[in-house]
Amino acid sequence: MTKTNSITALIEALTAFDAKPIAIADCCQGGKRRLMEEAKDMVNASDLDAITKQTVCNAITKEANPSGYSYDGSGAEGGIAALEAALIAEQAHGTKEANNGLKVATGFNLRNLQNLVADGGIFHVEFIKRTTGELRKMQCRLGVKKHLKGGSKAYDSSAKNLLTVFDMQAKAYRSIPLEAIQRLTVGGQTFNFVGA
Known about the structure:
By secondary structure, the protein is an alpha+beta fold. The protein folds into 2 domains: 3-92, no CATH class; 99-193, SH3 type barrels. It is built from 5 helices and 7 strands, in the order H-H-H-H-E-H-E-E-E-E-E-E. The chain has helices at residues 3-19, 29-44, 50-64, 76-94, 110-116; strands at residues 103-105, 122-128, 135-141, 162-167, 172-177, 181-186, 189-193. Strands 1-7-6-2-3-4-5 form a 7-stranded mixed beta sheet, covered by helices on one side. A hairpin with a 4-residue loop joins strand 4 and strand 5 (172-177). Helix 1 (3-19) packs antiparallel against helix 4, helix 3 (50-64) runs antiparallel to helix 4 and helix 4 (76-94) crosses helix 5 (110-116).
């Protein structure tokens, strides 16, 4: 079985696992932890490589126990999101090299991007600004909280399909329209986006 098929099969299995009704015994903290362990066991029993398994298991744990104190569920959704990001990365590896050896990626969304770029990880992005139509290049990070001034944004980023990042050069927060991303470099890999 190819890696792409393995990832797809595991996404389907975790989706089915997440959709099943929760028994009353699983509503307590111990039950939720057991569900998380079951989801991680499904991942570890797959034929994925060790690094992908570890990444997916970490995402399951983070989703199931975000505070580190109490469990919110099985964490399967976090595992599914991590697998979707791995699937896109694998598909990009499997595509023909295009445009000076850069890989072409398709089907990217906010959830996949956030799983590929861990909080605090620096990445480079090129995108077309909505307001002026100009190409903008930015070195940025997710998850920076140091420069927050309090309050909340006047708009919902996800409703406007925007990713809020911290611009490393400007030392300020910026919003990137996901549909306008032309190129993304993360972890030494560069992805061109179809339609770019």
